[in-house]
Amino acid sequence: FAELHAAVAGLPVSSSRILPGLVLRRDFATYCPAGGELRAVLVTEPLRPALSAPGVEFVVDSEGQYQASLQWITRRTEALMKHLQSSNIKLLLSNVKQEEVVIYYAKLYGISVVECLSSEEMALICEITGVSPYAPFGDNMHGEISETTVATFCQPLLLGSKRCAHIGFTSVCTFQPHCLILCGPVDSVNEQHAAALQEAFIMLQQLFKTVEQ
Questions:
Q1: Cα(177)–Cα(129) distance, rounded to whole angstroms?
Q2: pLDDT of residue 110
Q3: Helix 100-108 vs helix 63-86: angle between axes, to the nearest 10 degrees?
Q4: What sign for the dihedral angle of Cα 208, 209, 210, 212?
Q5: Bridge partners of residue 166, in order along the sequence
Q6: 28 in helix, strand or coil?
Q7: Of 9, 72, 73, 119, which is least packed with CB atoms within 10 Å of its CB?
Q8: Ranges of the chain with pLDDT below 50
Q9: Which of 110, 123, 115 has its CA nearest to residue 48?
Q10: What local confidence, expressed as pLDDT, does residue 176 receive?
Q11: Under CATH, what is the fold of the domain 22-176?
């Protein structure tokens, strides 16, 4: 329920509404309006490649070697983002913060990015779409990207003073995600309404289970 509702203080209760899709309480790191099919990938690791594996020391002997290493990272990052573009990827959802070079090339190649998603948000998106996170640095970085989903829409949303990402997903299950926007004069009122609604949904869920049995 926490991922399926958002609270907005300072507005009348009558402004509450239900929106299709998910409202991710993160602003776009970069937003590139796009038409047509909006293919999306999920990632759980930085897309800027590391110079060495975790726990392995990388020794640089000179300034020239250091600059060459940075250039290699930049070229590899650009190649990855270009590969995403050529695979018709227009939306990148990440549970980690991406480096500025990733955001730069994402914007350059027309890919919107939402980063720092919670593990709960990522798990919900995986459940809705049926896809797993994309691992770009395997044996074949330029191979076909099979773990993609289609977003029916992707747009910024302003809730009070907070900018969010409003995204609709093609669901592989009977559950069609919607988000409840709870409005109230103060946070405490919204918290009370959210708790009451959650209890009501739990009761309905238990009732339906009883009927099915």
A1: 11
A2: 95
A3: 40
A4: positive
A5: 23, 155
A6: coil
A7: 119
A8: 139
A9: 115
A10: 82
A11: GroEL (3.50.7)
Structure-token pair, residue 169: 């997903």
Q: Is the dihedral of CA 73, 79, 81, 84 positive or negative?
A: negative
Radius of gyration of the chain (CA): 21
Within 87-138, residue ranges assigned H as helices are 100-108, 119-129
Q: How many CA atoms lie within 13 A of 23 on its CB side?
A: 23
HSE at residue 88, side-chain half, CA atoms within 13 A, is 12
Please name the amino acid found at residue 146: S
Structure token pair of residue 177: 């995600």
* 144 C-beta neighbours (distance < 10 Å), count: 7
Selection from 108, 130, 134, 171 nearest residue 44 by Cα:
134
Half-sphere exposure of 109 (CA within 13 A, CB side): 23
Strand order in the sheet with 112-114: 22-24, 162-169, 149-159, 38-43, 89-94, 112-114
Q: What is d(CA 16, CA 26) in angstroms, rounded to the nearest whole number? A: 20
State how far the Cα of 53 lies from the Cα of 199, in Å rounded to an integer. Answer: 47
pLDDT for the residue 28 = 97
Q: What is the pTM of this model?
A: 0.79
Q: What are phi and psi of 207, to 5 degrees?
A: -65, -45
Q: At residue 54, what are phi and psi to the nearest 5 degrees? A: -55, 135
pLDDT of residue 205: 63
Residue length of the chain: 213
pLDDT, tens only, 108-118? 999 999 999 99
